[in-house]
From TrEMBL:
It comes from the Eukaryota. This is SRCR domain-containing protein. InterPro entries: Ig-like_dom_sf (IPR036179), Ig-like_fold (IPR013783), Ig_sub (IPR003599), SRCR (IPR001190), SRCR-like_dom_sf (IPR036772). The chain crosses the membrane at residues 538-559. The gene is LOC116037802. The lineage of its organism: Eukaryota, Metazoa, Chordata, Craniata, Vertebrata.
Length: 579
């Protein structure tokens, strides 16, 4: 269906303008039609040209409306050879709804403004000059602006309208309720091929037919801004160029963060990453943004004025919005943290959430992890533009940096966008407990020795941090292992072994277990090494050996005595000297 039905709606609000009776006081001269040319105002009986070096489409739109022309399509100004008496327009006066001539003051200048308005098509009540409810001026007499029935309007028709208004390609085409407006009187059928430069150039059936707009909606249309980024690495980075009559760079002055953000968004390029100036080799025709025009979110096109300059606006947008990364921990009562450093306790549950502003459906989130000695990626599909990565128990291996990378495929192009980095530190909630043998915690390096058969006592102690809890005494040896458990009393526990056995020889440690906010934590002491020594070798060493030595010495003495008596007889002086 490439035909168009134009409905003439009889309604006071939609009838020809003339509110300010200004057809008598505004005119465009020297153009191709009454809707193009240099702007002249009749004020206090004088026709004079209008001068404004910050002349832009928003201001031109006021003149187009007073002239009962369509939308403002392009603006320009030129230098005349000499100064002349002109009207200057106070913009805030115009903005408040006053007629142009009421806002004029006499001045002298050589700069003369001109403009082109569309003749028979306009968009009204939109957020910019490129959006709104479509109205067409029929060439029947009397000429009237009428809405267009949604049901019979298609993409090709929209292309013609957007082109005629000097906007970019159509982006949103939707019905608008015409509510209080009265029944359509007649319709006129048009058939656009899509390539026409003006809607009234489209073929017309010529026959009037009687239809009402069903289901009661007229055309609302949004054309994109004719803006592009050139010379960058991607379609989302480079010098900002805007098309009015031709493509020209935009000057980097008066660009607010909101305007940069709106431009990136307009280009479906996510958010603005950087804004700076690019020096050109020479002065050339550019567009300058008028600061008095730009309000938050205003599109560039409505607010630029032709300028001769040499520094262009270089804008870098992220292809996509930047995803958010946040972490919540069970120990934190589920409070979420978006700060860049976060601490979780060993053993606690933590939950890393990735989310992105809705932009495209689907996609997936990749959680990347890097630490000094390892790296890992986890992937989950995006559900409602977010994903949650749950870690049931924090361990030291989770210590490192995390980021969320959103991947999405749009029109068979893969895009991805990464969040900022989040540093996660895993620390122990509990201090390590102390282990001691019979109250002695020194000599842990060399180990403890206990006599076989004797009583020994291994004590576990922890600095008071949390009430309750229990101690587990773990034991391992070359051929066995055992755990003993006791509740913590006064933050300690004593494991009594009434008689040391060789089976008790091995490595001991105290493990303290406690539940905090319904999470279990534990912490382990140093290792204690225990050797069981047999008492028998001691008896031999302490009693048998000294006794043997004594007997041997006594035997040698007697032997010496006997020998000396045999050799020297009664010579007692000699025998005393030898033995
Ligand atoms: C418009 O102006 C003309 C003369 O300039 C005057 O006769 C006419 O009444 C005015 N119309 C309105 C609606 O103000
Ligand atoms: C108006 O349109 C004509 C024809 O497209 C063009 O030559 C002229 O420069 C335009 N004027 C302005 C002020 O944009
Ligand atoms: C549309 O704009 C006209 C003036 O241009 C205004 O009177 C009217 O209230 C607006 N309607 C809506 C729905 O905004
Ligand atoms: C359209 O309908 C109106 C009233 O419903 C009628 O007066 C008019 O003659 C009709 N026009 C045509 C062309 O049928
Ligand atoms: C534009 O800015 C980006 C980011 O600052 C930079 O990498 C790039 O080189 C600039 N391009 C030009 C043409 O200056
Ligand atoms: C993870 O955190 C998010 C946001 O705080 C929450 O919606 C989600 O239910 C949590 N997931 C789990 C398994 O706790
Ligand atoms: C991301 O974080 C910012 C600021 O921290 C917040 O304003 C925004 O709403 C968040 N976006 C999403 C999708 O959670
Ligand atoms: C994780 O993914 C990134 C790309 O997103 C890749 O460069 C990196 O090698 C991956 N790392 C691991 C450990 O798979
Ligand atoms: C996604 O969001 C919608 C609306 O907010 C909700 O009804 C739905 O349950 C959500 N789905 C999931 C899986 O969270
Ligand atoms: C996009 O990614 C998907 C898988 O993630 C891959 O199969 C496909 O080839 C990619 N397309 C392009 C154009 O790189
Ligand atoms: C526990 O051991 C630490 C060092 O390991 C020591 O500083 C502390 O005093 C000990 N506490 C007790 C109660 O023995
Ligand atoms: C002792 O407890 C630890 C956990 O604390 C466990 O890994 C080990 O298997 C247990 N050993 C025995 C022999 O029960």
């Amino acid at each position: 269906m490439d035909h168009l039905l134009v409905l003439l709606l009889l309604s006071s609000g939609l009838q020809a303008e003339g509110k300010h009776n200004s057809t008598e006081s505004v005119r465009l001269v020297g153009g191709d039609s009454r809707c193009a040319g240099s702007l002249e105002l009749k004020h206090q009986g004088d026709w004079k040209q209008v001068s404004d070096t910050h002349w832009n489409l928003k201001k031109a739109a006021v003149a187009c409306k007073e002239l009962d022309c369509g939308s403002a399509v392009s603006v320009g100004w030129r230098e005349e050879s000499s100064d002349r008496s002109v009207w200057k327009i106070k913009y805030d006066c115009v903005q408040s709804g006053s007629a142009l001539r009421e806002c004029a003051r006499s001045d002298s200048s050589s700069t003369i403004v001109n403009l082109n308005c569309s003749e028979s098509v306009r968009l009204v009540n939109g957020t910019s000059l490129c959006s709104g409810r479509l109205e067409v001026k029929t060439n029947q007499s009397p000429q009237r602006w009428s809405s267009v029935c949604e049901a019979d309007f298609d993409q090709q028709d929209a292309e013609v309208v957007c082109r005629e208004l000097g906007c970019g390609a159509p982006s949103v085409l939707q019905g608008v309720h015409y509510g209080e407006v009265e029944v359509p009187m007649w319709t006129k059928e048009l058939q656009c091929g899509g390539h026409e430069s003006a809607l009234l150039d489209c073929r017309s059936s010529g026959s009037d037919i009687n239809v009402t707009c069903s289901p009661g909606k007229v055309v609302g249309l949004t054309c994109s801004e004719p803006v592009r980024l050139v010379g960058g690495d991607s379609r989302c980075a480079g010098i900002v160029e805007l098309k009015h009559l031709d493509w020209r760079p935009v000057i980097n002055y008066d660009i607010t963060p909101e305007t940069a953000a709106a431009t990136c968004k307009e280009l479906d390029c996510g958010s603005a990453v950087s804004v700076d100036g690019k020096e050109e080799s020479s002065y050339r025709d550019m567009w300058r943004v008028s600061s008095d025009c730009v309000q938050s979110g205003t599109v560039l096109r409505d607010c630029v004025t032709p300028w001769h300059f040499h520094i262009a606006l270089n804008l870098t947008c992220s292809d996509l919005f930047q995803p958010n990364i946040s972490v919540s921990s069970s120990m934190d009562g589920d409070s979420e943290a978006q700060q860049q450093r976060f601490q979780v306790f060993r053993g606690s549950t933590f939950n890393i959430s990735c989310s992105i502003q809705p932009q495209y459906p689907g996609g997936s989130f990749q959680l990347t992890f890097t630490s000094s000695n390892s790296a890992h990626n986890y992937t989950q599909p995006a559900v409602n533009h977010s994903a949650h990565f749950l870690f049931p128990a924090a361990e030291p291996v989770h210590h490192g940096k995390y980021s969320c990378v959103y991947h999405v495929s749009v029109l068979s192009h893969n895009f991805s966008s990464e969040s900022h980095l989040l540093s996660l530190a895993v620390s122990d909630l509990l201090l390590p407990p102390n282990i001691s043998l019979d109250g002695d915690s020194e000599a842990q390096q060399q180990g403890f020795r206990v006599f076989r058969g004797s009583t020994f006592n291994i004590s576990c102690f922890i600095q008071p941090q949390y009430p309750g809890g229990s101690f587990q005494l773990t034991f391992t040896s070359s051929n066995s292992a055992h755990n003993y458990t006791m509740p913590a009393v006064n933050h300690s526990a004593h494991f009594l072994f009434p008689a040391a056995e060789p089976a008790h020889q091995g490595i001991y440690s105290c493990v303290y277990h406690v539940s905090v906010l319904s999470h279990n934590f534990s912490s382990e002491s140093h290792l204690l090494s225990l050797t069981i020594i047999d008492p028998t070798p001691f008896i031999i060493r302490a009693v048998v050996l000294p006794l043997t030595l004594l007997l041997v010495n006594a035997a040698l003495y007697l032997y010496c005595k006997v020998l000396t008596r045999l050799l020297f007889g009664p010579l007692t002086e000699m025998k005393h000297a030898v033995c």
